[in-house]
Amino acid sequence: MERSTSGEIMSQGKVFLIGAGPGDPGLLTLRGAQRLAICDVVLYDGLSNQDLLAHAPHAEHISVGKHGQSRIWKQTEIIDEMLHHARSGRTVARLKGGDPAVFARTAEEVDALREAKIEFEIVPGITAALAAGSFAGIPITHRGLASAVALVTGHEEPGKPQSALDWNALARFPGTLVVYMGVTTAETWTRAIIDAGKDPSTPTAIVRRCSLPDQQTIHCRLDEVAGHLTPASKFRPPVITIIGPVTELAKSMDWVTQRPLHGKTVLVTRPADKAAALAGPLADLGANVLIQPAIATGPISDTSRLDETIAQFNKYDAIIFCSENGVVYFMNRLLDHSTHDLRAFAGKQIGCVGTKTASKLRSDFHLQSDFVPDDFEAASLASGMMESLRGKSVLIIRASRGRDTLPSLLRDSGVAVDEVVAYENRDVVDVDPSVAQQVASGTVDWVTITSSATATSLHRMFGDSLHRMKIASLSPVTSQTLHELGYRVAAEANPYTIESLIEAILKS
Questions:
Q1: Which residue numbers are catalytic?
Q2: SS3 content of the chain, % helix, strand, coil (to 5)
Q3: Which residues 6+ apart lie within 8 Å of 118 measured at CB?
Q4: Burial of 270 (C-beta count, 10 Å sphere; 0-12/13-18/19+)
């Protein structure tokens, strides 16, 4: 127990030493995700994918350094920070790349925690050597080629009078050697093992950023490794080097580079809460996905008009929802801030622009749409409902910005139309610096644009840089806006769904 500055007795916190895996955020263990979710603070290193911080949304996130981007904390500084938070009664996650038990200096952190009498738990992770078997097509053990594996550090503790590694034994080792952290010292350790008797022509693979979309592999001889790694700017960390005949199996076991979008970078510009539905499938196809929302949605600041409309809800014969967001914001307002319940829809026709909008209404609010156009166009919905609505009163639920096609067509055919804004669409102004750099440098292959508002916002955001990438548009309406802005559309979805948008990219 400790006392705070006010004299209050505080209980000790707890520390979770969590393996972040080799890079792909999907390779975190379920245990790791569960432990992150209950933490108050996360200390993460440069080898931990920052996407994993989403598992700890309410925690304080503290980076302890990343090569080439920020100062690398000394081990003593990391331990002091960890102890400080734990002694304050906080639950701490120490998120470490790979597995905590493999070249991660976990023992030093455990010794400090034991000395401070702070409870801890070690959560395993997938280390890069094991991930290489699946993602680089290199099984580090093989019945006919390697019945043993040795994990070797290429960067020993500075100040040692001599190497603790027995290079003679490693040269004779009857299996696979996997060298970690050996980029800057490649000349030293390759010369040492060759001088100890290892055949210079031994097949070797150098794997960079294993399991990530931009994973790279160089196959070479052992005596060629230093030439590929030195200087370190040639093939920057994180890198592992796999030595042995198993590396030659990559030709038959490779699946990563066979994915149709491998090596392609795709920019997803949907609102943050919608991005995953597009980003996930693209990543599964091998794409390196960048996410930069162009528009954001949110509640309207003045709800007086919306509330007035809801109060008069009974006067409408039909309700038309133009989007999933419209469903969510309108229905939540109707059910939470009025005397209405779902019985208010009795006897009313319901139309939805798009199957996703209809699905959202059905799944979240148990209401079935009467009409959904086959081609997901507002004009088609108006055409399909026109006869049954003539002379009746219709309410259209929409965003603060949107096209006037649907209300105009209905009014022209004798329908009494009211429109109400249920949520706000606004342009995103702040651009992720890393995304901006890649767009400006022309390294982005595709950009997906799913609405006219998104197109307009991206035009303001990136300007002529958009010409450097192929544009995939969700619909003819969006394409028309892009044409008016001066851009060429390389792929257009048909029908106008996310699934079809991906198919259009694959066919282009």
A1: 45, 66, 181
A2: 40, 20, 40
A3: 12, 13, 14, 15, 83, 86, 87
A4: buried
Structure tokens, 376: 């997901």
Q: Which runs of E-coded beta strand occur in 142-215?
A: 149-153, 176-180, 203-208
Are 461 and 433 contacting, i.e. CB atoms less than 8 angstroms apart? no
CA gap 360, 379 in Å, rounded: 21
Nearby residues of 264 by Cβ (< 8 Å), 6 or more positions away: 286, 287, 288, 445, 446
The pLDDT tens digits along the chain (508 residues) read 444 444 444 578 999 999 999 999 999 999 999 999 999 999 999 889 999 999 999 999 999 987 666 788 999 999 999 999 999 999 999 999 999 999 999 999 999 999 999 999 999 999 999 999 899 999 999 999 999 999 999 876 555 555 679 999 999 999 999 999 999 999 999 999 999 999 999 999 999 999 999 899 999 999 999 999 988 778 888 999 999 999 999 988 889 999 999 999 999 999 988 899 999 999 999 999 999 999 999 999 999 999 999 999 999 999 999 999 999 999 999 999 889 999 999 999 999 988 889 999 999 999 999 988 876 666 777 677 877 888 899 999 999 987 777 888 888 888 899 999 999 999 999 999 999 999 999 999 999 999 999 999 999 999 999 999 999 999 998 999 999 999 999 999 998 889 999 999 999 9
Rounded-to-integer distance, Cα 185 and Cα 230, Å:
8
Picking from 99, 82, 92, 83, the residue whose alpha carbon sits closest to that of residue 47 is: 99
For the question of whether the overall pTM of this predicted structure is more than 0.90, the answer is no
Beta-carbon contacts of 69 under 8 Å, excluding residues fewer than 6 positions away, are: 46
